[in-house]
Amino acid sequence: MKVLIDKYIPFIKGVFEQYADVEYLCDDEFTAARVKGADALIIRTTVRCGESLLAGSSVRFIATATIGTDHIDTEYCNSHDISVFSCPGCNAQAVCDYVEEALREWEDAGHKIRTVGVVGVGNVGSLVVKMAEGCGYKVVVNDAPKGMGVPLSELVGQCDVITVHTPLTREGEYATNHLIDEGILGRCKSGALIINAARGGVVDEKALLRSGRSYVIDCWEGEPRIENDVIGSEGCFLASYHIAGYSVDGKKRASEMCIDAIMSFLGVNSCGSGKKLVSLQAELCGVESGDSARGWLRRVSERLKRCPERFMELRKQYKFR
Fold this sequence. Notes:
Layout: E1 2-6, E2 21-25, H1 32-35, E3 40-43, H2 51-54, E4 61-64, H3 74-79, E5 83-85, H4 92-108, E6 115-119, H5 123-134, E7 138-143, E8 148-149, H6 152-158, E9 161-164, H7 182-186, E10 193-196, H8 205-211, E11 214-217, H9 228-231, E12 236-239, H10 248-266, H11 274-285, H12 296-306, H13 311-317
Parallel strand pairs: 1-2, 1-3, 3-4, 4-5, 6-7, 6-9, 9-10, 10-11, 11-12
Antiparallel strand pairs: 7-8
Helix pairs in contact: 4-5, 10-11
């Protein structure tokens, strides 16, 4: 068995060597030629998995150390007997903390928050609801697939802040691509803040720019390339390089889940050993946490706004909170 692993996934090096031939690659090294002889991949959102990468390969299992799978052509994988595993909820608390910091920064800038709208009440959204209520805000929710809350068109007219926590889907009754579009933005309460720490594409950035609304963006359409007019607009209150979920605990949990999934694929009875192995790795690596002091998101934003072309470099250099 051969397993290819994204070298930037922490707490995983050395775990599989006794069970498989393992190779660690940078995201741009995941080419069709390198992947052809692999049986399993462990990746992040930076590796796009579709026919161009997988056709003719022996890959039968893909684990992504992320909550979403929009970087993976799941339809192609399903039709070619390739199992896909993701890590829903692994970084939910980290994303919730990101939203809380954004709310603090907005209030520190002199804006009054009375009502927060949460769009999508899954692993992340449910935590955001509890956090916002704990901060004393009134909370209004919308989750159409679950039949929860009020219609989105009503929610946006009631809320001082709208924060989105849905997956990115392009088809079906509840498709979320450009969920926050020109029509929805036109119904927003005057002075409302839009937060997208979900997936690039859930918010139509061009429509957002035209709307004149203020916004916080962590996940961008077309990233790592960021439109200069979007990040350079006066409406761009805070900007970050897709690191809302980048906490030590979140990364540990993602690696734990991937380890257990790959062990199962390899036929190894792990008995949930991912947690133990990750804890050992963390001790050996001597994990150093990054900046989590009050104002950390503002400092991240200042770095990205100065050099948006360094998006991927800044993301790779970011120390987990």
